[in-house]
Amino acid sequence: GYGRTGVQYYENVDGDDRTNESQIVSRLRMNIDASTSTDQGVDFGARFRLQWDQGHGSRGEDAATNAGKLYVTSNGLTVEVGNVDTAFDSNGLIYETELGVYDRSVGFSDRAGSFFTYKSDAYSDVDRVGVRVLYEIDNLIVQGSYVDPDQSGWNEATSTVIDGVKYFHDVEEEYGLSIDYIWNERLELSAAYVMNGAGVKDNDIFFVGARYAVMDNARIGLNYVDASNDGVTGNELDREYVEQGNTIAIYGDYTLADGLTNIEAYVANNDAEWNETDNAFGIGVNYDLGGARLGASLQRDYDERVTADMGVRFDF
Amino acid sequence: GYGRTGVQYYENVDGDDRTNESQIVSRLRMNIDASTSTDQGVDFGARFRLQWDQGHGSRGEDAATNAGKLYVTSNGLTVEVGNVDTAFDSNGLIYETELGVYDRSVGFSDRAGSFFTYKSDAYSDVDRVGVRVLYEIDNLIVQGSYVDPDQSGWNEATSTVIDGVKYFHDVEEEYGLSIDYIWNERLELSAAYVMNGAGVKDNDIFFVGARYAVMDNARIGLNYVDASNDGVTGNELDREYVEQGNTIAIYGDYTLADGLTNIEAYVANNDAEWNETDNAFGIGVNYDLGGARLGASLQRDYDERVTADMGVRFDF
Amino acid sequence: GYGRTGVQYYENVDGDDRTNESQIVSRLRMNIDASTSTDQGVDFGARFRLQWDQGHGSRGEDAATNAGKLYVTSNGLTVEVGNVDTAFDSNGLIYETELGVYDRSVGFSDRAGSFFTYKSDAYSDVDRVGVRVLYEIDNLIVQGSYVDPDQSGWNEATSTVIDGVKYFHDVEEEYGLSIDYIWNERLELSAAYVMNGAGVKDNDIFFVGARYAVMDNARIGLNYVDASNDGVTGNELDREYVEQGNTIAIYGDYTLADGLTNIEAYVANNDAEWNETDNAFGIGVNYDLGGARLGASLQRDYDERVTADMGVRFDF
Question: How many helices (DSSP H) and strands (DSSP E) are in chain C?
Fold first, then answer.
């Protein structure tokens, strides 16, 4: 796991004079792992996580426990059951625009749409179940995942009528797929697709990304995500999910000659209609302490609000 | 602790067409132990448990924590305080009819009545307290336990009147006793008794069992449990606890020549009036992977419902 | 962490014939620590705690998790962020009047007033944040801490009117300071001050203490705490906090020639108006088992109620 702490600044929305714009933000994550190997060389393992996040609604008061993940691994093939890491969320490039010690990217990650992920706190439904299959060989990673928000089948026949509109629960089964390939240790290619993301019917999201190491200490990348189906309006469904639009980002990072200081940046464009601006950008820096890192970032989001952070993170 | 996952099938009760009969069922249990030894060779220790059970009401959303157990051990004598393993629940043969990777026995274990056990999730009353004394010598294990559901004494004077009937809380102190003896490494003899099981007045349960190794790789056993007092109706108490009846089971297991495959089965008879049938039976198989095991079972319960399961379990 | 269990007796208040005066009281505390060191020799670390307390309102049903603490240490200087140990609560002498295996002092510790401490269970507000700076050099320890009960700023503008009186939330920022000095390995001097203790405006508490080793195996000490501002009534605030008064205590301990048995005692005087008596006292004994300890105490509080305890504690 890891710990991180520091200060985040987020410009208030117009008219909000109550919330402090600068706050101390910390996280403490401890993974509790257990594993065993059979005589045939098959590895079985499991994970719980304890996580606390300063100010978080469900992980802020104390360390949240979560649902368990079980896995079996043999010859590069891993099968996970339970609270699994989903394929889409585990893609190799999708979060690579993120900056600073908090790994935030208001221009790209925040517009990648809604989909299931490994859950660090409690399920909302005890009948949620996930399965993930992961295959790693040389420089190729292929993975697929499946999450059923309610395997009992009870909620599927349930709908709620509000103001004459029939709302169904998020009970669709989510299917995800992700591929990562590294060519010649220079070029990273990634793609991912998720169907019925987060259990919402027709919420399909597509991601593709590429990154090239132009020098040994410099990389440049291009990411594209289509989360424009995120808010679906259909015959039976009329959700209030906000449509996230299509986003394209150019990003890169450069390591200074000291080998410790890494400078990173991105520029992103999103076409959602409700944006104040269609462009977001950010710049960040990380300094490697050898076991810990200092980091800072400065970003502007699609509401034209500025955010900045500075802090330290250590892994254990 | 251990992890296990697989699929369980349970035939629906008549008229239920909503619940999926086959579901993925997983458990992840991690015991968190700590101990120390004094200069005199006395061992002190303690345990918490983190447990998640797919679909479980109070352990399904995330890993439940539980109340602590403290113990002291010296020369075969162990005293536990707190959330103790109770004597009745720790008997050596009472759960030996259980089959497959999930260790289920719808014919016997499910009719053993209500009594306190080591609790893997939260107490319902902060004032519950338990004590257990365990003595092990050679091939004899004797143990006694005591659980007070409310040592504060507050609930004892409290009753609730529903429809003119006076209901008392479960506030009786439970006393349990268990003896296990192994003769000549061949014959296992066990008996257990619990008074005021689960804190319910006059809910007394009696168990006796024997198992004999007819061959080095084959055992046959006979278990009997009288949980017929489980639902008590008296002057002051008129509980809705269901009377569980008397149950007798013949069971055995046989290990194939490979030394890894174990086949097990039971036939049980229960005399509760509300049974559809008085006979239940099951057959199971386990395959030892050396560090993990594959298992499956097929059973029919007293409602004439069929259940089956298949999965894998690994201990760590 | 540690475990402890035993029996506590507390004389009931007049008219209470429902509560059992003697109860089994156990605690199980497990600290979950993680740390790492950078190449420059700076140590980063973090802590979660699992704690269960028999009968406790929020830690009695199961092991409570808590908010995380993160720290960095280098050359005697430690900075903590999050759920920090506060300066006032970490003073070296403030709890030294405590007796027996439960480390209780109804005469002094219970009148030390209200202030923030390291929290073993959940925050009541996800926006609480703390910082502590600790400096240790030779025989001097200086520390300061700061706790903001709500860094978001939302509650500061919020008040509740009950029966025409305007109540504000506990939103003041608490500042604490503590100094410990040991002179010649004989004389311990300590002082501590906290402003706006527990987030309550004008709740300022002052502590000063000294202890001298009159022999190698005997110490005598004098503690004074002024918690008389604890219940503040002002123009805008009319809290029901009970004023705790000023307390002075003489205490000491003596180790017998066996080197294992330690006898300890205190006499304390408190001037709060609502006391039955202004004098409290207690005597205790601890026996070192080498890795565990047996202890007992007998005390009388300011209500003239007698309390006694006996038990065992083991650290791991």
Answer: 0, 18
Predicted pLDDT of residue A13: 83
Mean pLDDT of C169-196: 93
Q: Bridge partners of A174?
A: A147
Structural domain harbouring C253: 37-280
CA-wise closest residue to A98 among A275, A256, A297: A297
Which one of C65, C131, C157 has the shortest CB-CB distance to A50?
C65
Residue C253 domain-assigned (yes or no) = yes
> Among B5, B62, B315, whose Cβ lies nearest the Cβ of A70?
B5
pLDDT at residue number A182: 98
> C131–A24: do the CB atoms touch at under 8 Å?
yes
Residue A173: the pLDDT is 94
> Is A35 in Cβ contact with B316 (below 8 Å)?
yes
**C14: how many CB neighbours lie within 10 A of its CB?**
8
Of all residues in chain C, what percent carry a pLDDT higher than 90? Answer: 81
Put simply, the answer to whether A316 touches C34 (Cβ < 8 Å) is yes
* Whether the predicted pLDDT of A235 surpasses 60: no
Residue B287 lies in a domain: no
3-class secondary structure, A110? helix
Interchain proximity A126–B61, CB inside 8 Å: yes
- Nearest C-alpha of chain C: how many angstroms from A314? 7
The three-class DSSP label of residue C26 is: strand
Residue A240 has pLDDT above 80, yes or no: no
Q: Do C46 and A291 touch (CB under 8 A)?
A: no
Does ipTM surpass 0.85 in this model?
yes
Please, what is the average pLDDT of chain B?
Answer: 92
The CATH number of whichever domain residue C207 belongs to comes to: 2.40.160.10
Q: Is the pLDDT of residue A150 over 50?
A: yes
Select from B36, B48, B82 the Cβ nearest to the Cβ of C291: B36
Residue A194 has which token pair?
A: 């998720």
- Top residue of C30, C42, C81 to mutate, by most chain A CBs within 10 Å, is C81
The torsion angle over the Cα atoms of residues C71, C75, C76 and C82, rounded to 10 degrees, is -10
Whether C33 has a pLDDT exceeding 60, the answer reads yes
- Please count the structural domains in chain A: 1
